[in-house]
Write a structure and sequence with these properties.
eight-stranded mixed β-sheet, two-stranded antiparallel ribbon, 317 residues, 11 helices, alpha/beta, 37% helix, binds calcium ion, Inosine-uridine Nucleoside N-ribohydrolase, Chain A, binds beta-D-ribofuranose
Amino acid sequence: TKKLLLDVDCGVDDAQAIMLALGDPNVQILGITCVHGNTTVENVCKNVLRVLQACRKLEIPVFKGADKPILGNSLSGGNFHGEDGLGDAPDPGAPGLDLIQEENAVSALIRIVNENPGEVCLVATAPLTNLALAVRMDPSLPGKLKGLYIMGGNTESRGNITVCAEFNFAADPEAAYVVLNDFQCPTYLACWEFTCYSQLPWEFCDTWLGQDSDKARFMAKIFRHGMEEAKKESTQNECLGCTGFVSCDSYAMAAAMDDLFITESDQYPVSVELTGTYTRGMMIVDTLGLLKKTHKAVIMKKVDMEKFKKMMMAALK
Ligand code: BDR
Ligand code: CA
């Protein structure tokens, strides 16, 4: 059994990633910590509970974390995820926030990893604020992780929220900097360009959502708005020639779930630009080794897409 701990800003692709993990009987989710990002941290908490309810897994503990970045204010996530983060689809039966644990997300992160030393894969599909705060409170934390899987950053200086930066890093560059520099554990990055190059055809999406299950109907409902936005964007060719379906956060999750998922990768020291006229939040890939950092991150280049399709299908069964 794989033990996963998830840190999310539950937009639509976080929901898809969570459902991916929930769909695998060999995965145990120890907890889900919430952070600002695609929407407010309160909405993120609500959204995670809605996903767990749709999957009948409300027993998984959910924790509320940071409501803004280390510096400055939250970045608006754009229109893709809707105002509420899950496509603004009405959900009158949604569970109440009283189900959120009293313990703060950052404390929970530290506690859960310390209770399972060497066993936890931490999957972060959001701005990295909670992780940065956690490593400041407990510097021994990274050394106790089995692996850290992040959706975030970019490798070709192409942004999706600013000219040069990917959303999760742009939403808290200082936190991304702390995490990439202080988490000296096996680190796997699903960066923005890679996710775009790993798109699935829209026809797959139709088959995926067309499954006769409550989970598929739930996903179709929360994804309707995002799908329209994505299709508009791809005709405008805004997404690296992306003409298909990209579930960014799901690639980081799949890599944590299956050690053979990544089929090709690069290994380089990485960091984040904190200033710059246009480049704040952009990931730095030190291909020449000039930063003199010993720790290298695994940057995903190719993954097993046939396996990915099977995992995605199983998630909505
Ligand atoms: C990332 O930002 C969010 O919009 C998505 O949920 C994903 O984590 C993509 O840049
Ligand atoms: Ca996310």
